[in-house]
Amino acid sequence: MNFSEIFKKSFLEGFTATDINIYTAALALVITSFIALYIFVVYRVMTRKAFYSKSFNISLAAIAVITAAIIITIQSSIVVSLGMVGALSIVRFRTAIKDPMDLVFLFWSIAVGIICGVGLSEIAVMLSLIITVGIIVLDKLPVAKAPQVLVVNSGNTEIETLLLSAVDKHAKYSSVKSRNMTQNSLDMVIELRTDAGSELLKEVLGIEGVASASLLAHDGEVTF
């Protein structure tokens, strides 16, 4: 017996086939299905989107069950597992994940499928509970208020001092982000934080030469 035959024999013996008990497999899939349903409900409750994607939520539940079935199957034989890896390696996923929380739920679903597939359902349950508590607690933590953006269009190029005075009167914080000036006009963009947006706009519009003023809110990153 040469070296390659010895290596092949020892390798295959190290990965002896595991007899799949149909009842054990069914129990693992049932438990995975219940946890997948739990993920479905948590995603629906926790995701506050203007456009809720029901199809993505359904795919989360399906991915958990499919992953569990794959893990159960590849435990039967090293040959089957290698074939499964080869088949899955040609799959390409091109759906863009736009929200980081969607990525969290996607990995959660895959992890539950893998853990239940190897027969450690208790860990999958504990993982789901810990993730749920973590999401709820972190979501309730207070964050700084996002700044607003004041956009002013004026036909008078000498209003900057009056404009900044009005902003300082009503805003807790302000920073000039842009000045665009021509011979007959001045456009300014000011980042600010204020609780008196209506009063600020009225005072700005009262400045002689101001043609329009807009106060915009955004959902970007919050600066402390």
Q: How are strands sequenced across the largest beta sheet? A: 2-3-1-4
From the alpha carbons, calculate the radius of gyration and give it in angstroms: 30 Å
Low-confidence stretches: none
Number of helical runs?
8
Give a quick account of the main beta sheet: strands, pairing sense, barrel closure. 4 strands, antiparallel
Order of helices and strands: HHHHHHEHEEHE
| Number of distinct beta strands | 4
Structural class: alpha+beta
- Can you tell me the number of structural domains? 2
Strand percent estimate: 5-15%
Q: How much helicity do the residues have?
A: 55-70%
Mean pLDDT: 79
Overall geometry comes to rod-shaped
End-to-end distance, in Å? 71 Å
Write the layout of secondary structure elements.
Blueprint: H1 3-14, H2 22-46, H3 54-74, H4 78-88, H5 100-117, H6 121-140, E1 148-154, H7 160-170, E2 173-181, E3 186-193, H8 197-205, E4 210-217
Antiparallel strand pairs: 1-3, 1-4, 2-3
